[in-house]
## 1
Amino acid sequence: MTMVITGNSTLQTEVEDLCDVNMDACIQCGTCTGGCSGIELMEYGPRQIIQLIKLNQRKILLDSRAIWMCVSCHICEDRCPAKIKTTSLMDTLREMACVESTTKSNEQIQFHKLYIKQVKAFGRSHESMLTMALTLKGTPLPPLKLMKDLITRMRVDIKPPHRPDKSYRLAIKRVEKGGSKGHGK
Amino acid sequence: MLNEGVLVIGGGVAGMQAAIDIAASGREVALVDKDKSLGGHVKEYGALFPDLTVGSTLVKQKAQIIKENSKITVMLGTEVDKLQQADGTIIASFLSSGNPKEQIFTAAVIATGFDNFNGKKYGEYGYGRYPGVITGIDFEHQEEAILKRPIKTAVFIKCVGSRDRSKGMPYCSKICCMYTAKQALELKKAQPKAQVYVFYMDIRSNFKNGEEFVRGAMENQHVKYIRGRVGKVIPTNGRLLIRAEDTLMGVPLELEADLVVLATAMVPSQSTNSLVSQVGGKLDTNGFILPIPMAESENPMSLTKGIFYAGACGFPCDVKDALNQGSAAAAGVLGYLQSNRGAAK
């Protein structure tokens, strides 16, 4: 697969404006990938994600699984010799992926949207309901044995969730109103 | 004709510096250059990294000092044909517009400099065939015209002739990383909207402030560095299609450019070979002067008895280093002459 770089690479400026990270400061040393806690689930390490931005590869980047596998543990950022705020960068990329229409069918986005919906409604995630919701959207159910184990060992609650009080709902409303796009600014 | 002076062969920056420092001690110096004017390669250079002193200004300043010093005789358009050692003196025969002439000296400094690698040896880059493909030296020579040309995308290719055992030289020419960064920076400053890419294998900016200089080009001017050696330049629709691999991503790359600049290697000068072998000096496998092992010589620039060298005839070096070596060779000459005089008494 040959990557074609077109004359106007706008992606880098766009991302830099949103998250205030200078992509050109990256020295491609790979310290981020070396320490990354989610790397086994990513097809591109943080270093390669920065390189993809520099090469203007919007579609590959925003369709990638890697940006969703980042758990914001800040190890990469903490160890980066170029002081790159990788975590803010990942947040920004996830937001961009949500906005881009081409990625609507992305199952990672679907999961995260359902998850956030639950947190907003109940104040925390409710695994059994999340599983149900995902199944309705077409994701296959987890294996029966695993489900049985999780339920009998009380890892997953099957009782209906608590409804949080009014102050929580008001707080969520406030966040939604003032919710800003981009990080670091 | 007897001349108790010192011969400096090569009027580039190293030779000029050596002549200035030797003459400062009150000795007669003959500065010989085959060119019509002093300054060697540097007289045609624009800004020099890292402090962006203009090359031609530096040469003018040195030439002015030489002009004002009556101890220095400048012999332009003159080539040293033969160089012989006899009884502690050095006999040189010159060729000046066909007229041979012989002169005796007490010591000599060889500063014959370097040549530029011929970019045409890389057929795949099309230098000399595709308009728009130039070398870094061409860039220096035609800088003003190039910076005025409308450029959407420019590509710099490093290590053209350097670090190549098949078509070029096996060594690293040392200065290309820096001058490429400098040229990319100048292009970006003149045309901020242009996309400037630099294809590199490694970035070797081992000079004072070198790393900061290159990082500045990347971070402040957004010159894009891509790790990988360009495989081919293909003329397409009046532009140049660059095919390479981004070795950091492991993917083949394609991009179109209007300007391709090849950072060609510094190769040994032809005249170094004949001069050095006449006085019993040795050349290394690449054709540069083989230095005497550090622990065996009194001066780092000494070649044989009474003969010293300086600058890029020893190995590719930057202008600052050439000046340093010129001074070091001058110190070697003065020390040699002083101890010789003591021995004569």
Note: The mean pLDDT of chain A is 85.
## 2
Amino acid sequence: MATVELPSPERVSRLERQWRSKPGILGWLTTTDHKRIGILYFWTTLLFFGAGGTEAMFMRTQLVVPNNNVLGPAEYDQVFTMHGITMIFFFIIPMSTGAFGNYLVPLMIGARDMAFPRMNALSYWVFLASGLFLYIGFASKNGPNGAWFGFTPLTTKAYDPSLGGDFYALSLIFNGLASALTSANLIVTMLKLRAPGMSFNRMPTFCYAFLAASFGLLFALPALTADCIFLFLDRNIGTHFFDVSLGGSDLLWQHLFWFFGHPEVYILIVPAFGIATAIIPAFTQRKIVAYPLVAIAEILVVFIGFGVWAHHMFVTGIPTISLVFFAAATAMVVIPSAIQVFSWCSSLITGMPRFRTPLLFIAGFIFMFVNGGLTGLMFIAIPFDQQVHDTYFVIAHFHYIIFGAAVFPIFAGMYYWFPKLTGKLYFERPGQISFWIIFAGTNLLFFPMYIVGLLGMPRQIYTYPSGMGWDWYNAAETAGAYLTAIGILVLFGNLVLSRLRGAPAETDPWKAPTLEWATSSPPADYNFAVIPTVRSAYPLWDASDGATMVLDEGHQQPISSAVDARLGEIIDMPHSSAWPPVLALCLALLFTSLVLNKYAVAGGCVVLSGLVLIAWHWKAPASGQSWQWWGMAMVIASEATLMGCFIATFWYLRLRVPHWPPHGIPEPKVVVPLVLAGVLLVTSVPMHLAARAIKAGRGSAARAFLLAALIVQSGYFAFEVYDYRNQLETFAVTRNAYSSIYYVLLGADHAHVLVGMLLTAWLLSTMRKGAATGIAWYWHFVNVLTVLVIGTLTAVNVT
Amino acid sequence: MLLAGCGSQTDILHPAGPGASDVASLWWWMLGGCSFGLAFVTALLVAAYVRRRSMGPGREPGERAGWIVILTLGVGVMVAGLVTLFVVADIFVIRGTETPAAAAAGTKLTVRAVGHLWYWEFDYPGTPAVTADELHIPARTTVLVQVRSADVIHSFWVPELNRKMDAIPGQDNAVELYADHPGVFRGECNQYCGLQHAHMGFLVFADTPAAFRQWLARQSAPARATASPGERVFMQGPCSSCHAIRGTPANAHVGPDLTHIASRTTLGGVTIPNTPAELARWITSSQSIKPGNQMPNVALGGAKLRELVAYLETLK
């Protein structure tokens, strides 16, 4: 057990003053405290869970008997679409990364906050705004109705003239922004803010899981964003990405969607693995068996998850050889999952398990996960998949996974960390009762779905005839749904009652090994009075030498090296700020004006958001922020993936047709754009030199370099915009799929150049030391991107 | 209710063709293996639960045993199982369910299935025969079904005969059907396609080869002009602006071809039986039977409706 000497009371009260939040509502609006943001995420996602759950109850009520009409087809279609979108994007992801990740990751790694506290606040307000945006659409009878996977052409304007498709596309882009911000923040937090000594081989497996999920989100979301951008453009501008008659493709939607959608499934459950690996050691009083294997398996699940997307497309008629490849990749993802299952089971068998509520939920989770995982394994058998695809068999499988394997651990975590969050103990007996009701309810709800699936019941039907042999199974499922709802009410009732009446909790009621249990319950605003020094993956169980770093001189946080967590510089963290909610409001206005097709207003909102960002960064941070280029690295990773999706789309559409560009459209110029891109590439040199000069404090040299770069950039940009407009007069963006991807890809690249120029200009005016490296790197990225884009667009002549 | 008793179920485990049959056997083997796996893990959990009080404190067996268990069961056994499943399913069973790139030598008949919002149109290339929602094929014959879409993505699926195949705009997909014995098999659209996805079923009648030939000859023939009052109602009323009856001036293709509507057993995507009373109800109030379908309620009543139904009933 680690013992840490507490600092003197004066130093503690100084820490309190440094980290205290503003009082009242204003405090919550402007907070940058990861714990408060985590709690905001928690309550907001619970509201959405309630909405998604209510939608599920409506569906089960409609399906309780054949030919029922509680809901008509139009209502049912919106309700099941909203159920899927809500549970995935507005409950599980924000609950795991936003609430659990935000609250627990800094505590577990011994940090005082997230790496980018204001960006963290922004992610919450953006998340809230995107959820309200979607539900305003639903309430105004413009709910999406094309299923959560939104397949085209059903969701294009021709078949869905309502605004439902627009609310779908825009809310997912909007929500994706929030998830990307959270995941980037979690990644940098875990890489750079770990307590001194917490090298990678000492990081809790919980954090490995969240690191894997965050990387997954960062690289998967751009594919969905690209898809939704294309859908919005097809619906509102008249492009033809998904219009077969003009060179588009409906399988393009599916490839991009599932390139996001399958990693997404692992992103949903990997945090749950993390929760399980945090709870099992605490309640078995033994270290998790084979820690390195578990940590690697958590990463591998997400990594392999990127190579399996087409197993959602086994019945679309893609060639057998591709099917076999994706089936093999799908088989591979089973291995890391099995490693974890056997590690959990070995730990339970060889430890001293205390089956309190959290561990009961984890045991239930293992059962549900193995159940859903084994039926998932069956989809490796392509012919079997082709039989049960889109039947209730699949519904049963992924609800065992998503409810059983993702939500059970969330419930377990709610009980497990309840004493830490509230300082109270929960009531044990009602907790165990809630588990058994939910366990019985979900199995009664989901198991018969396997059977009706084998009896051929398709998913997403608003009613079914009698005489198909489906009636009793459906009635049982509905009974299970109501039972589950009762169990969930008992669970939350118990938590509310425990909050009001529970006995006070000590710092570490479970004798758990990780750092969040080393601080008071609930934790102080500054998390740790003394920044811990870590010597083991189980710091509270193993001896550690005394830590002494208090950092009560300011709002401070130590930065560590990424791999072995050697102590680096001490940085000043930003204080509370009102700009994040203001920026989220500007973005909400932007998306609202887009859905109403008010493009001039939308342009105004973009400018407004830019001004807010300038105001946000007006005051320079007090001390060295040179590590902040990590944030830019995340932006670049995400942007590069998005542009990669655009380029992949170009090639996908190009390789489907013999003539490219289609007849009647002039072939793109080759020499001039390539030369210009080369000229732009040269500006990387002055940008690099400028960044070095700023860091060395040579202001006038830096200004000269930046000015030189900016002049060349402006010349390039002016010429390209002029040329872009000229080309639009030759062939319109609405002409066919070629013109659509041509202008979107080129336009997106120009937008990146513009952003790079604005950043350069901002750097020129502020000479901000901490930002120099990041902006230079962004510019190098823009240059490489421009060469790739121009190369792609001109390479059509190469045959 | 409607079709109970005529064997029109959609049970994957009650196969009537070689493809579906192989998949059903595969399922039972997978079920066996997976049940064993689930039972094993459940036993471990129960063992941990039962033994929880008997364990002394401070016992922590070496990591070594744990690693051996994980590497043996989690990696060794799983890899062996997965490789076996992969080889059996994706190299052998798949041969019976995939459609050969070129129509196989055994293929005796090609039909085309076109998904519409929300009905299936079947035609027989080389003949003028066109039907809706009811596909006839000869039993014990390999039939190549070319699956197409007229609008959004649908999926053609006859669970008891073979795997499903999506109907995707602009794409030429195909699936083979082979019925072991004569009978009626139920099919359904298996890809969510909007409002009436729930009512997009169809029936596959596997006839004896002789009966099939007869049926096809009858379907290929145009309707005879009758000059009956019902035919006048059809031609002058709204019917002819959407439907075709070959051999008459009506040749619109918005809704299903009605040349031999009286020979069908069901209407509206296997939603109601094709009796004169139900047909009349469909004409006047299809929107309450299948809300949102493309056919408006037709304001006809009394004598005119009776005449129209009487005429349609002649289109055998």
Note: The longest helix of chain A spans residues 73-108.
